[in-house]
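so the lab meeting is tmrw and i was supposed to have these ready like two days ago... anyway. pasting both below. for each one the top line is the aa sequence and the line under it is the structure tokens. i havent really looked at them closely yet so no promises
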Amino acid sequence: MAKARVKVPKTAKAGEIITIKTLIRHKMESGNRKDKKTGKLIPRHIIDKFTAKYNGEKFFWADWEGGVSANPYCSFTCKVDKSGEFEFIWHDEKGEEYTAKAKITVA
């Protein structure tokens, strides 16, 4: 199972542009590697979609392909106007969904 980590400032000023950093532990198996014991291809298993929401509104998203490395890291910015909650959602090709949340106080 994947494990997500996010780094969001705890506080910011109204109108400030903050940097958000995310990392999820996931093998991101491309489907091109062979199992050393059996010689058979290891089935593809990647995270193919990432979404970030701020107070329920989607503001950042990405579609990832097989070329993304294991344990994908993503950094992006967001302009914050009011206190609230960020939600980060990763989807993989097998239908699994991984989420993380972080709160911010805006003064």
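ok protien two:
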Amino acid sequence: MKKLLFSVLFLGMLNYLNAQQQKITTVQYAGSMGYLSLGVGITNKSGKVQHELLYGFVPKYYGGPLDKITYRLTYLPFEIKQKGKLSWRPINPIVFAAYNIGNQFSLEHSHKNYDQDYYWWSPALRFHVGANTAVFISGKKQTTMLYLEANTNDRYITTYWDNTGNMGLGDLFYMGLGVKFLFNE
């Protein structure tokens, strides 16, 4: 199952390369993809859709060691031009799937420790939704995108729903901060 998941994502990225406008290099701090994440990606011809594949890690002193692979899709619907080479994309929806690497993580629920209906989610795979806000600085050969991102996932939403009186919104959303370098063709 793991090999099938990665094969589908990899083939999808290769197929999409024919319609690329820009290549992306990403560095992100936090945001449910690891303590620090590094990735590559591409945009579509209009530049409004970004596909990325990222590797993230969590060091031992922050709860790790943990390695993650993430596929993220970002939609940039509109742009507000600023003076000079600056522009702002105030709200950009994102979806991503983050996979925890390691033998201790399974794509299937472990019914050995819990009842079948207790924890229904996979310990290895999280599906996230969120949004970011981004400032773009345009150059001749590359555009730099600085962004702040908030997201939640399937497990956090379910836990919040079941514990509404005991959890605040700070328990539901997680923040990330990053920079993307978009290389102009």
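from a quick look at the 2nd one: Residues 159 and 172 are 9 Å apart (CA to CA). The domain at 2-184 is CATH 2.40.160 (Porin). will dig more after coffe
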